[in-house]
Design a protein that fits this description.
- By secondary structure, the protein is an alpha/beta fold.
- It has a single domain, classed as Rossmann fold (3-Layer(aba) Sandwich).
- The longest helix is centred in the middle third of the chain and has 19 residues.
Length: 163
């Protein structure tokens, strides 16, 4: 069984994330969405809220397309999380050159820790390249419309959070 791991903080999950999840499903038999705890980032939503949002979006995807998606919170090293879930591949989404520079370093470190786990980069869909969770939160905080960047339930969660 081919198992892929798509890690992130998903604070919140955006349409860009959903795009990568849907496309990554074609590459693996099981896709594990690793929701990083990452206390250093100071997330807007707590872990349980982020996991619930990711799970709800993934349930929608599997209802439409089939396949298997598992949502897995983690706080350890990414490579250890990949081992924990049996992933042979880590899936990463890229929006721009700046993303690649950071990801290139991460791949080098991960390969040094475990060369048996590959990393696959997926370019963001052109319509989704500008979407970043940080910017979505900023728009929501300032009262802007985030409906072009997240699904309706996530938009409602953002509005409620900043109310």
């Amino acid at each position: 069984m081919r198992i892929g791991l798509y890690p992130g903080t998903f604070d919140p999950i955006t349409l860009g994330h959903v795009d990568i999840i849907q496309r990554a499903m074609a590459l693996v038999d099981r896709l594990v969405i690793g929701v990083a705890i990452n206390r250093d980032k100071g997330p807007l939503f707590d872990l349980d809220q982020r996991v619930a949002m990711v799970r709800a979006e993934c349930d929608q995807i599997t209802a439409r397309t089939g396949g298997e998606i598992v949502v897995h919170p983690f706080e350890n090293l990414l490579i250890d999380c990949a081992r924990d879930v049996g992933a042979q591949v880590i899936v990463r989404g890229l929006r721009a050159v700046a993303d690649f520079e950071y990801e290139f370093q991460m791949v080098g470190m991960n390969r040094a820790l475990d060369a048996s786990i590959e990393t696959v980069f997926m370019m963001a869909d052109a319509r989704r390249q500008a979407i970043a969770s940080k910017l979505v939160k900023e728009i929501a905080r300032l009262g802007g419309d985030v409906s072009k960047f997240v699904t309706p339930p996530v938009a409602e969660a953002l509005v409620s959070r900043y109310r």
